[in-house]
Design brief:
Layout: E1 6-25, E2 31-51, E3 55-60, H1 72-84, E4 89-95, H2 106-124, H3 133-143, H4 147-152, E5 155-160, E6 164-168, E7 175-180, H5 187-197, H6 207-216, E8 228-229, H7 230-238, H8 241-251, E9 256-259, E10 266-270, H9 273-283, E11 288-293
Parallel strand pairs: 1-8, 3-4
Antiparallel strand pairs: 1-2, 2-4, 2-5, 5-6, 7-10, 7-11, 9-10
Helix pairs in contact: 1-2, 1-3, 5-7
């Protein structure tokens, strides 16, 4: 980092999908989805620094994370600077805790942290740049389908390819145990495999619509029974360890469990933190284990 850069530090939170419905391919080649997404209190830390030299520079403390234009934070910064046509550069350092290829949205969250953080930074520095929500949302969708959600955080109903985000009321807090096995699941493969095995019968009411109604009606005690992920069955076929993790979570008292997004991580819901902590030793043989909780939009 340039010691002369004007800096801001932004937490970059993970998400879980409480539901994920895959509704088929769109004409643009992306999958149409519906999902209820939820921010959790488990985050990377993104440091942004403005500098006079034009360009984007990314560093990261986790081995194997790309720092060029394959990195979504780099891509977000490059698109943002091009949009604004300003003679500035941006230095980005990512302190990683969210594991990659887990379905927790770490890369997308980093990108949103850059967009939100840059907006705050140029405002605090009184730079003559105006960034509104529509500009940030448009750039977010160019970066990746999950990025628009992270501009809002909290609990949200998401549809389209991810660009339609409806913020929902914060749910009552739940404690989560997240298990990341020692392998990743490529997102593209998971969706292709789902296309191969999915039932061709159209859905009349999606799991995401039912979860949305549950949250809007404040019936969150039913939430664990509505957890659903269309990609899970397709992924389990190749990665049976995910099923084994879910079985251990169920025996350990989880109210419900689900694969995170396209995998490979799995989360279990617990009403009490002590119950969540008690099961950790039984899960450590499967990989990394994290205990966290849901957070509302004002904290995300």
């Amino acid at each position: 980092m340039d010691s002369g850069a004007r800096n801001i530090i932004v937490p970059s939170y993970a998400k879980v999908n409480l539901t994920l419905d895959v509704l088929g391919l769109r004409p643009d080649g992306f999958h149409a989805i519906e999902s209820v997404m939820q921010t959790v209190d488990f985050h990377d830390t993104v440091r942004l620094g403005l500098c006079e030299k034009p360009g984007v520079w990314v560093t990261c403390d986790m081995t194997g994370i790309p720092t060029d234009d394959r990195n979504l934070a780099h891509k977000a910064a490059s698109l943002l600077l091009a949009e604004l046509d300003v003679n500035l550069g941006l230095e980005i350092h990512i302190q990683k805790r969210i594991p990659p290829e887990a379905g927790l949205g770490g890369g997308s969250s980093n990108a949103a942290a850059v967009l939100n953080g840059f907006s705050r930074l140029v405002h605090s520095e009184h730079i003559g740049v105006r960034l509104n929500r529509s500009v940030l949302s448009r750039i977010a969708l160019q970066v990746g389908s999950d990025v628009p959600f992270f501009l809002f955080g909290g609990t949200a109903f998401v549809k389209g390819r991810g660009e339609e985000v409806e913020p929902l009321s914060d749910i009552a807090p739940w404690h989560l145990v997240i298990v990341k096995p020692p392998f990743g699941v490529p997102t593209g493969w998971a969706y292709r495999r789902y296309d191969e095995v999915r039932d061709s019968i159209a859905k009349t009411c999606t799991a995401s619509a039912r979860m949305r109604k549950c949250i809007m009606d404040e019936n969150c005690q039913h939430l664990p029974y509505l957890l659903s992920n269309d990609l899970e069955l397709a992924v389990l076929e190749r990665y049976p360890l995910i099923r084994e993790i879910k079985e251990v979570l169920a025996r350990g008292g989880a109210s419900g469990s689900l694969m995170c997004g396209s995998g490979s991580a799995v989360f279990g819901l617990f009403e009490r933190e002590e119950s969540a902590m008690r099961i950790v030793p039984d899960l450590e043989r499967f990989g990394q284990v994290f205990v966290t909780h849901t957070i509302g939009r004002s904290d995300a």
